Amino acid sequence: MNRKSIISLVLALTLMLVCFAGCGSKTSAESAAPSATATATPAEKVVRVGDLFANSYTSLDAQKESDGWWTSELGLTETLFVIDENGKVQPYLAESGTTDGKVWTIKLKDNVTFSDGSKLTAAIAVKCLQSAAAVNKKASALAGATLTAVDDTTFTIATTDFMPTMLNELTTVYYSMINIDASVDIDNAPVCTGPFKVSEFKSGESVILVKNDKYWNGDVALDKVEGYYMADADTMSLAFQNGELDAYMGPTTNDLEIYKAAPDKYTVTSVPSSRLYYYYLNMKKLTDKDLRAAINMAIDSEAVCTMLSGLATPTVGAFSESSPYGRVTKNSYDPAKAKTLIEGLGYKLNSDGYYEKNGKIIELNIAYYAARSIDKIVLLMQEQLNAVGIKADLTVSEDADGTYIKTGDFDIGMYCMIADPSGDPYYYLNRVLGGDLYTSGGYSNADASALLKQLESETDTAKRAELAQQMQQMIIDDEAMGFIALLNKTTVMRTGVVNCGENNPLSFYMISSKTDIK
Amino acid sequence: MLRYIGRRLLRLIPILLVVSFIAFSLMYIAPGDPALKKLVAQGLAPSEEVLKLTRESMGLDRPFIVRYFDWLWNFLKGDLGVSYAKSLPVSQMMWKAMGKTSVLALSALMLSLIIAVPLGILTAVRRNRATDYIVRFFTFTANSIPTFLIALLLIYAFCIKLSWFPVLAKGSIQGLVLPTVALSIPCAGKFIKQFRAEILEQLGKDFVLGAQARGVKPSVFLTHDVLHNAMLTIITVIGLAIGGLFTGSVVIESIFQWPGVGQLVMDAITARDYPVIQGFVVYIAVIYVIINLLTDITYRIFDPRVKAD
Questions:
Q1: Which among B27, B81, B26 has a CA at the least distance from the CA of B271?
Q2: Which of A124, A381, B46, B60 is the most interior residue, by most CB within 10 Å?
Q3: Environment class of A3 (CB within 10 Å of its CB; exposed 0-12, middle 13-18, buried 19+)
Q4: Contact, A286 vs A478, CB < 8 A?
């Protein structure tokens, strides 16, 4: 065989390989991939949703890792209790949850069924909750708990230490109800109670859901829901503008301008979520309280939110002011007063415009990570601090949790955390006051710690709110942290698409039986 | 020849050992905690207790050398481990991603060669004429524009404005076109430049003058002699480019939703997913050894004077 023949053969084989692979890909993708022309029959109602984080959802088992976010978002799974639009816990699959101060009694609704028609019984619910606690380390609240089915629709939960926020805990997505015994392939086709059931799942790529004809809670408006992992925010925006997606959450500021400029084509809804932008002040390095106060007064939350073009709402404390535990006060933005405080410490402005004492200027390091627009926020913070005579340097870290949050290597440490995932303030306050991973700013207050201990076991909701507010006020009064803004849950929908959970602050509520496309 | 191939493949063993150990060490030294990364998904902050349990379940509490030899022992049994972030077998994830990347890489390579070989010859033959300047301007532009910009411009033009292709490709043949073009443009730009230089060098040789003097048609001596003599350089350039194409382009794969190796490893690095990163390191080492081997074999096919070492 001569050289020409060898080359020709190799090229021909390569061409065949590509064509074969391409054809194969097309066959497997045809049933899943949307195109600019509709894949649905004219009468079929389909909503296509994109998500930047969906590649981490490698299973449809809501109990595993954070997979429940995606299954809940797409209307596949549901929980015993839910958080409503006002941040309050409401029964959903359960009818009620009561306690005698030691044991919780949960009564299920009598008419709840799974997508295969089987009924949600107390025994199934108990098995599901026990499984979640065993499978998911984050579900540690029920690890070691004793769950007992009393009758067909009632079961009890007894924990080692009484948990006053049990109902809040049961709103968490990894406690979604799955008929484990009926789910032959729980990772790819779990049997759940939601308005949709699985038709096709490509791990880390896409999921196609079809209407659950046996849905227990009324009619389901849509025939199909398609969820797609989008690796790139720009691609998601282009796909949405091209009509290949119908709704998604979390547009960028640039995208928001495009959508708001065309209200006839797009609907944009923003509600403050519980995702908090805040920063730690290093109490070991910034020992002057007046200096910390000056820093806090120099940061203008309104300006930050204006820069983010509606993606965030200013906040006073760690929680929304509309929540029962969000009513706290802090010094308002006041650069003149900030300067007065600094001058009171003996600093004088030098020719470069920075405050200086004993030949040393105030130079602070702001540590941050480039996600969720934090990189933009710190640029503005740097400018605002410069305006009051404080030199601010920026240090970016790819992994905040593994670096400066862990080590405390900052003067100002930026962070963004969901402060209220389940309608109760304990989660966040325990993180920042409980001596755990997220206390690297070095703040400690014996009174606040005592209140935290009290909050751990307090059963009265109003008292819990009061305790939470007192603790937040201590943090604010001690100038230990700066609460900047709450990231909005911004949902963009094509005109005609309605009821995508756009008014609920939590991101895992989106598609429901009422979601519709006209 | 078979002995030569066998000898070359045996070199994989020390290469894999060294490369895997260095990669493992660097990941160990790098800041970041895979357990914490896994738990802070969605912006929820874990408690110390949950973090400790997670680290134990992932084996991260064991000494570095124990973890490395554990990985090595499993690797020798054909098991690349389980992804920290996705809890899926690494080999399964790699195979799936490799398939996608291979299709894209081969398509891009073919298109680049289809563009670059004729244009490389054309610009060399029509040196310093209008054609040469136009093509060289194209190569300059192709090499200068960032790949992500090319990708977004292609989507904007062909998906949004012309509606010829969908934005969401999802592995279809239609979806292969734009990422192939996006990858081919800078690749072809580089190829044209280097092919032109080599062809020009060949055109300056005496045998070309002799062929012209004997009245041999340009199309004949260009394809039979000049191109043939230039093949060693062309093969070298292709060999270098293939390595880059097969290791995946994160940008192209992310923008065009093509779930290949580039995207896989980028996600793994962000998540500190050590087993996947190790798997990728092994994959790259194997790819480059095989490509180098194939390149050397191809040299011998085109020029038997090239001896195997």
A1: B27
A2: A381
A3: middle
A4: no
